[in-house]
Write a structure and sequence with these properties.
The protein is mainly α. It has 13 helices and no strands. The longest helix has 30 residues. The radius of gyration is 19 Å and the shape is globular. This is AEC family transporter.
C-alpha cells in the first residue's frame, strides 16, 4: 500500500500544474480570449481523444453491467451529495438569492475531471481511466438535471440538451467500438494520432483550471468568508466522503468502480460549479470561495482519504 508521503508526491504534480496556470493567466500568457479557445480545444478535441483511447485500448469493460453501473453510481451519489448540501446550506442560514442554492451545488459536486484522472493513473494505472469516464457520465447527468434544478428551482427537462456534448459522444462511440471488438481493426497509425491528442488533455486541462481561478484573485478579501469556507471544509472534505466510501464498501460493484469511488471521496469541489452558477443565475462568488477553499485544504487531505479509503473498502491486504 502506498504511504501518505507517496500519495502526497502523486498529488503534488497535479496541484503544481493547477498552480502554474495562475501566473500564466495573470501574466496574460494565457489571455482571456485564448482561455476560451483552449477550453473549447480541451473539451471538444483533446478530452474525447483521451476518452476514446482509454476505453477502447485500456478498459476491462466486458458486458452491459460494466457499462451501466458506473454512470448510475455517479448520478446517484452526486444527487445524494447535492441534497445533503441543500439541507446544510439551510442549516447554515443561507437563503434563496443569498447563496443557498450555489452553496448546495458547490459542496455537492466533487471534482470529477482533471484532478482525479492523473491520481487514478498514479495509484491504479492508466487502465482505470475508462471507469472514471463512465462514472463521470452519470455525474454530468446529475449536474445538468439535479444541479440545474437546485440552482434555478425549475424543471430539469430543459437541461437534458446539455448532456449532448463531445466527451459524452466520445464515450458512447468508444463503448460501442469496445463491445463490438472493432478496436482491433483500427490501424496503428490512427492510434498514434489519437494518442498524440490524448496526452495533451490532462496537463492542458490542469493549467486551464488554474487559469480560471486567476480573475477571482484580484480582490482576495472577497474570497474569505470564514463561515461558508469552514462549513464547506466540514462537508466536502469530512462528511460527504463517507457517502462514497460506504457505497464502495457495501455496494456489489466491480473493484474498478470501487477504486473510482475511493478517489472521488477524496476530491474537493468541482470547478464546473462556478460555471453552472454563472449560467443559471446563482452566486458565482460563493462557488469560487468553496472551490478555492476546499482545493487548498485538499492538497493535504487527498492522500489521507485515499490511504484510509483503500483500507476501509478492502482494496489492500
Amino acid at each position: 500500500m502506498m504511504s501518505y508521503g507517496q500519495l502526497f508526491l502523486a498529488v503534488a504534480p497535479v496541484i503544481a500544474l493547477i498552480g502554474l496556470g495562475l501566473p500564466l493567466r495573470r501574466l496574460n500568457w494565457i489571455s482571456e480570449a485564448g482561455e476560451e479557445t483552449l477550453l473549447n480545444l480541451i473539451v471538444r478535441v483533446l478530452t474525447p481523444a483521451l476518452i476514446f483511447e482509454s476505453v477502447v485500448r485500456r478498459a476491462t469493460v466486458s458486458d452491459a453491467g460494466d457499462v451501466l453501473l458506473p454512470p448510475l453510481a455517479g448520478f446517484l451519489l452526486t444527487t445524494v451529495s447535492l441534497t445533503v448540501g441543500w439541507y446544510a446550506a439551510k442549516a447554515l442560514g443561507l437563503t434563496i438569492g443569498h447563496g443557498l442554492r450555489t452553496f448546495a451545488l458547490a459542496v455537492g459536486l466533487t471534482n470529477y475531471g482533471y484532478l482525479p484522472l492523473p491520481i487514478m493513473d498514479q495509484v491504479f494505472g492508466p487502465e482505470s481511466r475508462a471507469w472514471l469516464f463512465m462514472h463521470n457520465a452519470g455525474v454530468e447527468a446529475a449536474i445538468w438535471t439535479t444541479g440545474v434544478l437546485i440552482v434555478t428551482g425549475e424543471s430539469p427537462r430543459s437541461a437534458w440538451r446539455k448532456l449532448l456534448n463531445m466527451p459524452l459522444l466520445a464515450l458512447g462511440v468508444a463503448l460501442a467500438v469496445k463491445l463490438t471488438g472493432l478496436g482491433a481493426h483500427i490501424p496503428e497509425v490512427v492510434w498514434t494520432f489519437i494518442h498524440a491528442l490524448a496526452v495533451c488533455a490532462v496537463p492542458l486541462g490542469l493549467l486551464m483550471t488554474g487559469a480560471s481561478f486567476a480573475p477571482h484573485l484580484n480582490d482576495p478579501k472577497q474570497l474569505v468568508n470564514p463561515r461558508v469556507i469552514a462549513t464547506a471544509w466540514l462537508l466536502r472534505l469530512a462528511v460527504l466522503p463517507w457517502i462514497f466510501l460506504l457505497a464502495a464498501r457495501y455496494a456489489p460493484v466491480p473493484v474498478e468502480l470501487k477504486q473510482v469511488l475511493v478517489v472521488q471521496a477524496a476530491m474537493p469541489t468541482a470547478v464546473v460549479s462556478v460555471i453552472v452558477a454563472r449560467i443559471y443565475g446563482g452566486q458565482p462568488l460563493v462557488a469560487v470561495q468553496i472551490i478555492l477553499g476546499t482545493t487548498a485544504l485538499a492538497v493535504f487531505t487527498i492522500p489521507f482519504w485515499i490511504k484510509f479509503g483503500l483500507a476501509f473498502v478492502g482494496l489492500v491486504p
